[in-house]
Design brief:
Elements (H helix, E strand, L loop, with lengths): L3 E7 L4 H12 L2 E7 H7 L13 E8 L2 E6 L15 E7 L2 H11 L6 E7 L7 E5 L5 E6 L5
Parallel strand pairs: 1-4, 5-8
Antiparallel strand pairs: 1-5, 2-3, 3-4, 6-7, 7-8
C-alpha cells in the first residue's frame, strides 16, 4: 500500500520550541514548517490570537528513518488540550483515492466519530479527522508534498 502512518503531536503553544529541541537533541531535520502568520497569508480566513504569529500550524520532521508531525492545536477540539490527549495518528498519501477509501472505511464503524469531515482545505486536496472507538484521533491527509 502507498501510505504511511505518522505520529502527530499537539504542542499547545510550544511547537517552535519543540522543533528546536528535536533538532538539537535528536538530530531532527525540518522537512516542512508553516506558522500561523504564513497560514494567514495562504488563507485570509485563518484566525488566531494576538502574539501567535510564530505558532506552528503544521510541521514535518525527519528523525532517523521516521517522520514526526507537530502543530499547536489539539485535533479533537471537543475536549480541552491536556498532556495525554495531545497526539494523533496521521495517515497520508499523495493518492487521493487511497485516503478517501480509508476514510470511507473508518466511518462505517458506528463508534467512529467524525471530527472534521473529509474535504479539501488550504493545505490539502482531501483532509479529515476521526476518533476511533478507542479514543485514538486519526487524521487522513492527501499530501501534496514529496517527503
Amino acid at each position: 500500500m502507498n501510505f504511511e502512518v505518522i505520529p502527530f503531536l499537539s504542542m499547545n503553544g510550544k511547537g517552535a520550541a519543540a522543533i528546536e529541541f528535536y533538532e538539537e537533541y535528536l538530530g531532527a531535520t525540518v522537512l516542512f514548517k508553516k506558522n500561523y502568520k504564513e497560514m494567514k497569508e495562504m488563507n485570509p480566513n485563518f484566525i488566531y490570537g494576538e502574539g501567535q504569529d510564530e505558532y506552528i500550524t503544521h510541521s514535518v520532521l525527519q528523525i532517523g528513518a521516521n517522520k514526526l508531525m507537530l502543530a499547536e492545536k489539539e485535533m479533537d477540539n471537543t475536549q480541552p488540550w491536556q498532556l495525554g490527549n495531545s497526539s494523533s495518528l496521521c495517515i497520508q498519501s499523495q493518492d487521493k483515492i487511497v485516503i478517501k477509501d480509508l476514510y470511507d472505511s473508518l466511518i462505517q464503524h458506528e463508534k467512529v466519530a467524525i471530527l472534521v469531515p473529509y474535504e479539501p482545505n488550504a493545505f490539502s486536496p482531501g483532509y479529515a479527522i476521526v476518533r476511533d472507538p478507542f479514543g485514538v484521533i486519526i487524521q487522513l491527509c492527501v499530501t501534496v508534498h514529496d517527503f
